[in-house]
Amino acid sequence: MESSNARRIVYLGLMTGLSMGLHIFESMIPMPTNLVVPGAKLGLANIVSLYVIMNFGTKDAVIVAVLRTVLTSLMAGTFLTVTFFFSFFGGLVSALVMGIAYKLFGKHFSMIGISLLGALTHNLTQLLVAAVFIENIGILLYLPYMLLFAVPTGIFVGIVTNQVNKYYSIS
Fold first, then answer.
1. Which CATH number belongs to the domain containing residue 50 in this structure?
2. What DSSP designation does 38 have?
């Protein structure tokens, strides 16, 4: 195995572990907003997804997002449950969208803009998954409430990612 490839694999393993830790930590934070917007989260693992997109690329960010959701669900005992599918498809689609946006529009969009796009995509994807499970597209009426929470958290994730990349860029 080539040295640079081994280094990349080690970094991606560390990024997967970090995103898992952030995901687990976030699940322990009591969210008073869940009274108004059930299921709302900060999206801390998206910091790692954005960081990986910036430093390794979209393909690696998708791999990290998939590994994070599969491994944390196995640890939590939620593998192949409804919550697994929400997390899996939300993380997968948002990583893909953020990666494509970064590659195509990274010179025109800030990390905050790309993070917002990821937060919005994550919420929309989760609602589409919910619509499939409950067989009712009416759940999409919940989207405006979720977006009220997605905007500030998307901004927060973008700001944090900028700072992390500023001080810990791999390049």
1. 1.10.1760.20
2. T
Q: What is the pLDDT along the chain (171 residues), one digit of tens a residue?
A: 577 888 889 999 999 999 999 998 988 887 766 556 666 778 899 999 999 999 999 999 999 999 999 999 999 999 999 989 999 999 999 999 999 999 999 889 999 999 999 999 999 999 999 999 988 888 888 888 888 889 999 999 999 999 999 888 776
Range of the domain at 17: 3-168
- Quote the pTM value: 0.88
How many domains are contained in the chain?
A: 1
Give the separation between CA 67 and CA 69, rounded to whole angstroms: 6
Written as six digits, the tokens of 152 are 């500030």
